[in-house]
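Is this the right way to post structure tokens for a design question? Let me know if I should format differently. Anyway, here goes:
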């Protein structure tokens, strides 16, 4: 697996897709984020086992669920936490401009794309400007008759 396809001989900067069957947690492949066309396949027995496997490790940047069983899909969505989830696909969630994309915990914080990206990569600065007509001094010690008037008005 991982051999360059014949159609890619004219593309020297192309990395062929690779499937790693029987990947284990001891492999760097499952402990580092993957930025390439590599798909590790981890066998499991039953959806409960798969959910426990995901939850036993740091939260992933992305989680991919393949299957048509709505009950199992809902279990995975409800009982796991990841940056994003893609159902029956691998990369299309990243291509959706208005769908937030980002991590949780060790895989990163915040999201980008759409309005969430603008908010995450911006800093809203709150600005308060006191007007010229300012009675703030009346609310600080030493207290006088004006403070008593304000207090009585607010407590009525």
């Amino acid at each position: 697996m991982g051999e360059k396809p014949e159609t890619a001989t004219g593309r020297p900067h192309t990395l062929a897709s690779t499937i790693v069957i029987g990947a284990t947690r001891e492999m760097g492949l499952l402990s580092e984020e993957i930025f390439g066309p590599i798909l590790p396949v981890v066998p499991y027995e039953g959806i409960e086992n798969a959910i426990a496997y995901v939850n036993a490790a740091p939260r992933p940047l992305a989680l991919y669920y393949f299957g048509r069983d709505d009950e199992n899909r809902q279990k995975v969505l409800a009982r796991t936490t990841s940056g994003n989830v893609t159902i029956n696909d691998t990369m299309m969630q990243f291509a959706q401009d208005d769908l937030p994309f980002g991590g949780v915990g060790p895989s990163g914080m915040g999201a980008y794309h759409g309005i969430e990206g603008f908010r995450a990569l911006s800093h809203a600065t709150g600005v308060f400007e006191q007007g010229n007509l300012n009675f703030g001094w009346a609310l600080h010690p030493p207290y006088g008759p004006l403070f008593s008037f304000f207090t009585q008005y607010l407590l009525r």
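Format looks fine. Someone answered above. Worth noting: The CA atoms of residues 56 and 83 lie 16 Å apart. The helical segments are 47-55, 70-79, 92-95, 114-120, 145-155.
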